[in-house]
Queue: 2 jobs
Job 1
Amino acid sequence: MPAPRFSTIKYLTAAFMLSVAGLVQAESINQTYITLASAVYEDSLIAARQLQTSVEQLLATPSEKTLGEARTAWRKARVPYQQSETFRFANPEIDDWEGGLNAWPLDEGLIDYVASDYFHEMGNIGAQLNIIANPVIHIGGQEIDATKLTPELIRSFHTFAGSEANVASGYHAIEFLLWGQDLNGTGPGAGQRPYTDYATGKDCSNGHCDRRRAYLKAVTELLVSDLEDMVSRWQSGGSLHKRYSEMTEEDVINSIIFSIGSLSLGELAGERMKVALEASSTEDEHDCFSDNTHYSHYYNALGMQNLYLGQYQRINGDRVGGPSLAELASTIAPKAAEGLRKAMTQSVAKTHALVDAAERRKPLMKFDQMIAEGNLAGRILVTEAIEALVYQTEALEALAEAMGVDSSGAAF
Amino acid sequence: MPKRWASTVPVRRFKSVFCLGLAASLSACQPAMPPANLGGELSTPATRLSVSTALSPAERLEHSVGASLFTKPWVIAPSTTRDRDGLGPLFNAHSCSSCHQHNGRGELPARSTDQIGGLIFRLQDSTNSQLQTRALPGFSAEGRVALTFREHPHSYPDSEQHNLRALVFQAEPPQPLSPRLAPPLVGMGLIDAIAASDIAAGADPLDIDNDGISGRVANTPDGPGRFGWKGESPSLEHQVARAFVEDMGITSHLFPVEPGCPALGCSAISGGEPEISTKHLRQVVAFLSALGIPQARLERQHHQGWKLFNEAGCAACHRPQWQTRSHTNSRLSQQTIYPFSDFLLHDMGSALADPSGSADAAEWRTAPLWALDDGPWLHDGRARTLEEAILWHGGEAQRSQQMFRAFTSGERQALVEFLRAL
C-alpha cells in the first residue's frame, strides 16, 4: 500500500475529480459500502418508480402494448434489486425489511384467481382468500373489511396467519399480477395473463377487474414506499448510514464476508438452485411467473462481485466505487485475494451462461426448463453455476482465514 | 439490535482451571470448567443455529435439501410440488420452521393456537395423541386453545422478589390438555450418538446410592427414549418422523398413519406412501445433525457460577460431559460433548406435573442446557427468565432449588450468568 499521506491525497483528488464528473468516489471501505448500498437501493427506487409509471399507463389504457411495457419495466426493476441482495444477509435490519419486497415462493391464491387445478398450500388459510374477488373476507369466525384495497390493507395480509407463503406484496406479487400463473410446468412459456384482466366494464376478463386494478396500483405504491424507506436509511442521518459510518473497518470486512458467504452458498447455490434442481420443482423457481430467474441469479452473482471489488455500475451507466476489500486483501493476502477474484469472475460467468441459454441461444431454455428431469444440458448448466458458487465460498473462506477474519456463521 | 451474525464476535476461550493441592484435599475437587467447544468438532462461533462451518462449503451445500424440507411450507396433495405435498388432513403447522424458527426454540403464541407459535397440546386420555388445531378445507380441526397468564408472587429468603409466571389454558371444546413447547434443535445428532447403554448406566431408579436423585430410563414402545419432554423418542429419526406425522400430518416409513386417518377418508389427499420419503426424512435428520453448536462464552468471571452449579447439585441431573459412540458420521463419532443432561426421567414435583406420555405426571426428561437462548423455558414456556425456570424445579430437584433460593443475590446472578454463557 502507498504511504497513507499519498493515498489520502490520491483519494481526495480522485473524489474531487470524479465528483466534478458527477460520480462518487468513496475514501474508505466503510464509505464504499455506504456508497454502493445507497446507489443500488436508489437505482431500485428509480426503477420501481418507472414501473409505477408503466403500471399507471396500463391502468389508464389497458392493451397488449401497455401490459408488455409494464412487464419490461418489472424486469428492469429487478436488475438493481437483485444486485442489492448481497447487502441483506449481514444486516438483520435489511433482512427483516426485505420480506415485504422479495419473499417467495408465493401462494398466488391469496391474491387473485388461479387455475382450477391449482393446488395451493392448504392449511395455509390465506391461500383460499383471493383478496381481489372478496371485498369481505371471512376467516376463523372473523370478518375482515377489504372493500378498500390500500397499501396498508395489503401489508396487513402479508405473511397472514404466520405462513411464509402468504406473500401479498413485493416484486413477486406484482410479477403474478402482470404475468399470471405459469401453467407450463417445466415446459416452455411463462404466465399468460391477458391485458383484459385490467379492462373496465364489459371487456373485463376473469372478473373483479376494478379490484385487480386497485390491488396492482396499491401494491406498486407499497413497493415504491418500501424502497423510499430503505434509501432514506442509507442517506446521511439514516440508521444504516450511521451504522456503517461508525463501524470499524474490520467489522465492515466481516460484514462483507458474511453476507457474500450467505448469499453465495445457502441462498443462491442451495435454496435457489440445488433444491430446485433436486426436486425438479418449478415452485422453487425464483421468478416463476415471468421466467426471469436466470437474470435474478446472474444479478445476485454480479452484486457479490461488486461488493468485493468495491464497484457498481448504476442503471444510468455511471460507475461508483472506492477502496475495496479486494484491494485491501491484495496487500495482506495477495494469493487468496486473487483466488477469490478469479472465483467471482467464474461464478458471474457461470450464472451468465444461464442468461445466454435463456435469452440468446436457440432454442431458448428458461430456468424452469433447465431443471426438468432428463434435461441433461440444462441440468449441467445449473450444476456448473452451483459449483462455481461453492468454489467461490471456499475461496472466500480461504481469504477470511488468510486475513485472520472469522467467517463462520455464514451458512444457512 | 440483536446480533444475528457471529463474524464480528471474537472467539473467546477459557483456560481450564484445575484444582490444585490444598484446595483439592479440603473439599471435593472442583471439576474443570467446560471448554468453549461444547459440541466437539461441530462447535462453531456462530450464535445462530445453522449448518456448522466446521463443514466445508460443498458439504454444507448437501444439506440444503434437508434445510429446505425443514423450512419451506408443506402443501396439500396432489400438487406440482411433489416432494413437499401431503399436509394434513389435520395438522398444527405447515412447516417445521414455523415452530422451530431458525431451528430454535418455539415461542408462545400471543393469544391462542389461532396464531402460529411453537406450542402444541397433548390429550390427557388413553390415546395420548396430539390436539390438531388446524385442518384442510373439508375437514374440521379438533379444537383451539386460548392462553392467558397468571403471576405468582415469589420472594427469596433474603426477601428479594422474583415473580413466577404460570400459563392458564382454555380449550374449546373443554378438555384437559398438556402443553408442549418446541425445543431448540441443538446438538440433536450428537445426543443421538450417545450409546443407549451409557445413558442406562446413569439410571438409579431406586436411588440405591441414596443421593436423593432417582433417574430412570424412559421406556417407550420403540426402545429407551432420550428425545422429547418426557423422553418419548428413542432416536432422532424417530423424533423427526413423529413430529412430521403429529405436527403436520406427513406420513413416513416409521409412522404410516396420520392423525384422523383413515377414518376421515384420507386417500384423496395422500401425498404418496409414505408422504415424506425415507431419503428425504434422513436428509432432514442429517441437516439437523449438521447444525453447529454455538461455542460457550465462558470466561474467568463465570467460574463462581460453575462452582455454585456443582455445589447446588445441578450437575447430578444436568450431567455436563458425555462421550459419543463410534459413528459413521465422523463429526458425531467419539466426540466429547457437554449437553448438560443425563437424558433420564426425574420426578420434578407437583408444580410442573402434567400427565401425558409414557412417563408419570411428575416425571420429565432432564432438559439439556447447552446453547440456552432467550427462552421462554420449561415444557410450556412459562419461565421468562432462567431464575423462574430454576424456581419451578421441585421433586428430586427440590434440594437444589432450595440451595439456589438460599444463595445471596450475587450468587444467584453468578449461576444464571454461567448458564447464559453456555
Job 2
Amino acid sequence: MRDQVILRVVSKIAAPFILVFGFYVIAHGELSPGGGFQGGVVLASAFILYGLVFGLAELDAIVPRRVTDALTGAGVLLYLLVGLAGIFGDYRFLDYTPLRITGSESAESWGMTLVEYGVGITVASVMITVYREVSQAGSAEK
Amino acid sequence: MTILEYLLLDVILLFLLIVTSVTVFFLRNLFAATMVLSLYSLVMSLVWLDLDAADVALTEAAVGAGIATVLLIGALVVVGAEERKHHRIHWPALVLVILTTGALVYGTFDLPRFGDATAPAQTHVAPEYIAQSVTKLHSDDHGSKKNSADHPESDNFHGHVPNLVTSVIVNYRAYDTLFEVAVIFTAGVSLILLLGRRVAGNGGEP
C-alpha cells in the first residue's frame, strides 16, 4: 500500500492524533471511560496503521523490535514497583498511600495513574508485537 | 427519549447483531466475513453504550472492531481469502454442538433476570464500592471549600476517582489487574520466543 498517496498522507496526519487520544484515554482513565488497557490498544493502533500503510521495515525503523520487547516487560515492572512502593512505605502490597507525591489526597491518583501507564505500555507493545509477528508470518509464507 | 424509543433502539441494535452474526456464518469470502465481523463489534459497542457501559464499549470498539480485524486480515494473507468448499456435515460434531448449546441455554435459566435489583451483583459488594467512590464526589461538595484551603493542591474528588469502573479495576481489584497484565506479558513473550526466533533464526529448529 506504499504507493497510495491518499493512504500515506491520511495515515501520517492521523497517527499523531491517535497517539494523543491513546495517552488521553490512559491518563483520564480515572475520570472518563477508558484506562490502561483501552489506551494501550489505541496507542498500538497508531503504530499498526503506520505498519499497514508503510510496511514492516518502516515500522521497525520507528519502533525497533528491541524497544517493544523491552517495553513489554517495563510496563509490568512499573506496576510491580508501584505495588512494592506500598510494602517499602510500611503498607501492604499495592496500597497507594505512600505515593503522596503532591499532597496526602493525591496518593490514590498517583498510584492509579502509574498503574494505568504500566498496563498501557505493556498492552501497546504486546499488540505491536502481535501485529508484527502475524504480518511477518504472512510475508514469510509468500 | 421515551421508554418506547429506547426499546426501539434496543430492538434495532439487537436485530443488527443477529443479522451480522448469521451473515458471517454464511459468507464464503473470508475478507467479507472479517469486515462483517468488524461491523458486528461496532454494533456490539453501540449496545454496550446503550447499556451505559462506556468502558466496555471503548474496549469493544478498540479491540473487537480495530485490532482483531487487523489480525484476522493478517491471518487471511497467510491462508487465502476463499473458504474451502465442503458440504459434508460432521454429525458427531453437530450433536456435540447442539448438546453444549442446550446445556448453556439451560444454564441461563438460573441467572437473575436482566436488571434485577435483588441480584447478587447488585447487593453483594457493589453498594460498598459505589458508596466509597461515586457518592463521595457529590456528598462532599459543601465541605470541599474549607478543605481545599488546607490542601490547596487537592481536587474535589478527595483522592477518590469518579470513574467507578477504573476505581474497581486498579484499586479494589488491583491484584487481578496485575495478573491480567502478567498474562498479556506472558502472551507477548511467548509470541516473541515462538515466532520471532523462527523467522529470524534457522527455520524452526531450536
